[in-house]
Sequence to fold (328 residues):
Amino acid sequence: MKRYLFFRLLELIPIFFLISLIIFVILNAMPGDPLLTSRLENPRALVRDPAKIAELRKYYHLDDPLIVRYGFWLTSFLKGDLGFSSMYKQPVLGIIVKRLPNTLTLTITAWVIGLIVAFPIGIYSAVKKYSFFDYFFTILAFVGISLPTFWFALMAIIVFSVVLGWFPISGVQTYGITGSWNIFVDKLRHLTLPALVLGLVQVAYWVRYIRTSLLEVLDQDYIRTAYSKGAKEKRVILKHALRNAMIPIITIIALDIPYFFGGALIVETVFSWPGMGRLMYEAILASDYNLAVNCLMFIAVITLLSNLLADILYAVVDPRIRLGEKAV
Fold:
């Protein structure tokens, strides 16, 4: 298992450098100048002395070739020095650390909601294929796949916040509330609607994958043999069929973790949720390149870790993967 994980980690290193280069090049191709943007926002931010401006440009390596600037940025990134934000006038690392818990709370909650809803529906649709239940959720899944996330979020706000008044419209907490229990309940009410929107959108995809993967296994000879020996349906489904169907399911579920962080950009913007998604959106609009590139790098790292998680789960579910690696 250690050898298997070592080689998987080794494979991620060149991918990380390639992704970081692509992100840096794309963001630096955007029009505008960081120093000019900072000066337009605050005329007193820079002196008008050309020598001082040239000194700042030299300090930030703005006149160096792109590959040299990438080298300086990557070295600082690996050291944990993410630089300063021209929009917030604060260190980028401090801003990300402040926003990250809100995004993790939202995405983890949405991911769990998606799993809790998708697995029972997908399994039951496969077991009762071509039933009314199967057709109903198949149609519902296709409708869910077709719905834009921002439209779904806006409709949820109109129905559940504006019309019914069940949940707050935006934010993460209501100001002025005191008491630990009251604060917890208030945060939970703010979290529920954006987490449901983010999670339920993904349920539509997962239900189709779970159903399809399980149907392929249910048609195998060993499943029919298990039934012929008198094994109970629940045992056959959960112990034999589902475990063997888990590898393609794990691939989708683990690799969709970055989707939640990418989808959080839309959901957090619509719900004014102060997380990483909204932070990246604001940074791009304000041409805050340093903040934007580090936010994108965060999502890239999450994507790589999701791939590693999928590989680990493969080995846990199917020991043949570990044995095959040892044989190599």
Q: What stands out?
A: Residues 39-47 have pLDDT under 50 and may be disordered.
